[in-house]
Design brief:
Structural class: mainly beta
Number of helices: 3
Shape: rod-shaped
Length: 384
């Protein structure tokens, strides 16, 4: 009996304290931290929690509040901050933040924006921006959002750019104000570089509204490299005043190289003082949709006819930009009128072999092409 009493005493004073101490567990050392039930100690390895996808995590039955997993879908350690019946998983990351815009700019339309920046923490990228002006974009790199570009329309733009990652509703916001500038007749020939043009074709009635189709906007016709009028435009809207016939004594000898040049205004240039015939590069800049994004082709009928004065190429809007009427052209052999109302032809100063470049357009299409120098075309003068 004494043996059993001694054995029971040994159990009480030996085994039970050992069981109590085993409630704390240490891995990688001899003794746990007194405050920890589980103490994993190492200076060369880390602790790896269970790894699973979002779908696998969602399959955990009644996850305890505070349960930890590594979510391989979101690439973060997650904790259930809800309850077993209604789990609410949250990534354990640095809280997402975003700074205010580095600037609140006011600029003119078609002027390059000085880049705006927002710095972020906790984000993995950005979502789809909203509210930015047309021509302006946002990019993300090294925890910085950079907004840049050239706005092409006027207005006050309040933008919002959501942060990507576990950032909830954190967004970068700001305002860009773009002024509409009444620049008159002309177009952009480079980013932020406005070039004035005459409002009317050479020889047109300059009292007429330059942006409303009318026979008065037609103007005269010129051969490349020459300053004299090759054929007069219409003197009235009717067929009797269309001046559409062949021209007696039409000059079929082409002007020599150097009669007009791109680098300067020559003595043969027909434009008034301070203006010259545009270069091919200038016409192509006028057609550049990035520089001059607002383009239209007004006119209900683009059928060629000697009294069709309804069509044209419109760059810009309101009282800004250019309206180039479809005046047609004069045949290079005898000066007969062709294509009025159907195709527009405008000389450039640029040579190409024995020919020269022109701007040409039909409904919904415009480009530069080569032409025989003895054909008659419109001239729209550009500021030197």
């Amino acid at each position: 009996m004494k043996f059993f009493i001694k054995l029971f005493a040994l159990f009480l004073f030996g085994v039970l304290p050992a069981l109590h101490l085993s409630a704390q567990t240490v891995i990688g050392a001899d003794a746990p931290d007194p405050s920890a039930m589980l103490d994993v100690q190492s200076t060369s390895k880390g602790f790896l929690p269970p790894r699973m996808t979002t779908a696998e995590r969602n399959a955990i039955s009644n996850p305890a509040t505070g349960l930890l997993v590594f979510n391989t879908t979101l690439n973060c350690i997650e904790m259930n901050v809800g309850g077993p019946a209604q789990p609410a998983w949250a990534c354990l990351r640095v809280a997402c933040t975003v700074s205010a815009a580095s600037a609140t700019p006011t600029l003119d339309a078609n002027t390059a924006l000085t880049p705006i920046t927002h710095t972020t923490t906790g984000a993995t990228g950005i979502g789809t921006p909203t509210g930015l002006p047309v021509g302006v974009t946002a990019a993300w790199a090294s925890n910085t959002i950079t907004i840049s570009g050239t706005p092409t329309a006027a207005g006050t733009f309040n933008y919002s750019i959501p942060l990507a990652g576990d950032c909830g509703s954190v967004t970068a916001t700001g305002t860009i104000t773009v002024n509409a500038v009444a620049l008159g007749c002309g177009a952009y020939v480079a980013t932020g570089v406005w070039k004035a043009f005459k409002c009317h074709n050479l020889g047109a009635d300059e009292s007429a509204d330059p942006f409303t189709p009318d026979w008065k906007l037609n103007g005269n016709y010129y051969q490349w490299g020459r300053s004299v009028v090759a054929a007069n435009g219409p003197t009235g809207s009717g067929s009797a005043e269309a001046n559409a016939g062949a021209i007696t004594g039409w000059n079929t000898t082409a002007a020599s190289n150097g009669a007009w040049v791109d680098s300067s205004k020559t003595a043969n240039d027909p434009c008034p003082t301070g203006f010259r015939v545009p270069t091919k590069a200038q016409w192509e800049a006028v057609l550049d949709a990035t520089l001059n994004p607002t383009r239209s082709y007004p006119g209900t009928s683009w059928d060629a006819g000697s009294t069709n004065y309804s069509t044209g190429l419109r760059i810009g809007s309101g009282v800004t930009g250019l309206f180039l009427p479809v005046a047609g052209n004069r045949l290079n052999t005898d000066g007969t009128l062709l294509n009025r109302g159907g195709t527009g032809y405008y000389w450039s100063s640029t040579e190409v072999g024995s020919n020269a470049w022109r701007l040409s357009f039909v409904n919904n299409f415009a480009a530069t092409f080569q032409s025989n120098r003895t054909g008659g075309m419109s001239v729209r003068c550009v500021a030197q």
